Amino acid sequence: MDTFLMTKFTIPPGYGMGAYSLGHFLWLAAIISATVAVAAKYKEMDGRHRRYLLYVLASAALLDELYKDIVPIVTGQWNWGFLPLHICSISIFVIMIHAITHSVRAAEFLYAVSLPTAVMALVFPNWTAALPCCNYESIHSFSIHGIIAMYPCVLLAGGFRPDARRLASVSLIFLALAAVAVVANAVFDTNFFFLNGGDDGNPLSLLERYVGRWYILAFPVIAAVCWIPMYMIPARRGKAR
Prior knowledge:
Structural class: mainly alpha
Helix content: 55-70%
Distance between the termini: 54 Å
Strand content: under 5%
Order of helices and strands: HHHHHHHH
Number of helices: 8
Shape: globular
Radius of gyration: 18 Å
Largest sheet: none
Number of strands: 0
């Protein structure tokens, strides 16, 4: 408990829970179970109750992010790396926009960008190398990525159908956000969007080890590998119906 309020920037080495440990697998099991249960409940709801549930998920994501930022400010551990400029942090605001406006493009962004990045973060967590299971930032990292992955899954259960024709606009939004991350990284010496290197536990670090800074060129390939099955499977199901 002495390390509960420490961050990955301030905690001494040797406390990490480790990826693919019992704690990691328990978190994954809890997130999958919660996602299945909430999606099934959302599918049965009428329009009014669906809106309430989306508000609850959006509020939970925002409060989770605020909790992550308030603790280091109060304890004097603030670091520019806590700015909400990672893809998953930005996804929180996209979730809020969708919950309020029900924008189809926001839903497409959450499906095409937020879902795969949140899932990859949960499968390849970069915080487990430094943080123990009983740590506020470790708990936040699992819970926030769980909510971000859950939200588009809930939309799918409610009838949302991805459309590859919207990927062009989603890609433009992503590139604009990446440009903001480039500027922020240069000004604050941060690593938003992992543009300045892959963190420990992130598969990008393996690519970086072999090809250096050219690992950034793998981003479009990774997107294609994710998007081909993500859009081919719903399209085929639509044709079958």
